């Protein structure tokens, strides 16, 4: 089943703890502190893979966890860094935050983005040596990595997209001009998911054409399957509006205007996309009637007047009327002309430097958990100390009961409970903040 949306839970690795150790060698008395730093935690990274077609892989495995960093060791040995978790996703994948705001757009093959950063490794006791404190037994816990609940949505990349009401032969047309094999049957909504096909225009040029489920009036409000798949049209450079030659011209015009209205309601920019009218199933009429039908349709479109639906319809250079390409998926008539037109009107791909192609189209870097970047948790022989300028200033103005409650709230919002537990925290553990010593209930 095609998956174009998935919720994931990305958890980066925590940093390794700093070590408390001292140099112990023969003939080297009082060698001093030698505790190494912890390694940084691994990050969760998304990479756009052109071989993937949907989000099934992450939808079936939504919990993405990177490796924790390793703790430091004696002899000034730094712990190894945690391994990154690299997740391939289809090209065109967007990452949304809790407010449904797009923060990452992986619109190019090979584009990558780090969606959860690993925690920094803690400092070993060698970092705390001073001129008056030659043998510190203080080390720092590794920082916690980011953890987020995010939504991935896929907007397929295509040079052209087939557009029209259900059961007018869009899938048959895609089968005729490309290597795609969508399901074809004589009933509405045979196509229930987007299908991409590769069209060979020349020896050295290919384009992608997409078929989406047929639209109904009210698609922009969620009627039919329109709302789920209108988004896939956003990236198409050209819209191929397919019209059924077996329908009266008046019905075709009404369908044309109705679909344009849905595009406009969904996204105004989508309604301004260049559009080519394709008259399908011309094998249903005689050869003499075909020219008449094409002319009638062109004149009917022109008679609509100066409406936005016509401003971006491609026009015939000779007559100035809307350009209409008649085709038959059964006999193949008109297909070479359609291919030639596509080669002329679909823009050539832009040449992008390799370095730029590896970057996300845009990436919004959000801050981590509130205040977490300014907090350090240390352990020594007397207990646990939390260093943070904000909480230290606040506690100076509180009595003992209020301070205890403030520390509990601070630990919870900064997600520091796992660090206190790793410090051997038990009920009533003494947490030092500034010049205050406050018991904390784990």
Condensed summary:
The protein has twelve helices and 20 strands. The protein has 442 residues and is α/β, with parallel strands linked by helices. It is elongated.
Tally of domains: 3
Q: Could you state the CATH homologous superfamily of the largest domain? A: P-loop containing nucleotide triphosphate hydrolases
CATH topology title of the largest domain: Rossmann fold
**What is the CA-CA span between the terminal residues?**
46 Å
Average pLDDT for all residues: 80
Radius of gyration (Å):
31 Å
Percentage of β-strand residues: 15-25%
Q: Pairing-aware structural class of the strands and helices?
A: alpha/beta
CATH class of the largest domain: Alpha Beta
The tally of beta strands, per DSSP, is 20
Describe this structure in words.
The protein has twelve helices and 20 strands. By secondary structure, the chain is of the alpha/beta class. The chain has three domains: 171 residues, Distorted Sandwich (Spo0b-associated Gtp-binding Protein, Chain: A), CATH 2.70.210.12; 186 residues, 3-Layer(aba) Sandwich (Rossmann fold), CATH 3.40.50; 73 residues, 2-Layer Sandwich (GMP Synthetase, Chain A, domain 3), CATH 3.30.300. A hairpin with a 2-residue loop joins strand 17 and strand 18. Helix 4 crosses helix 6. It starts with a strand and ends with a strand. About 5% of the residues have low confidence.
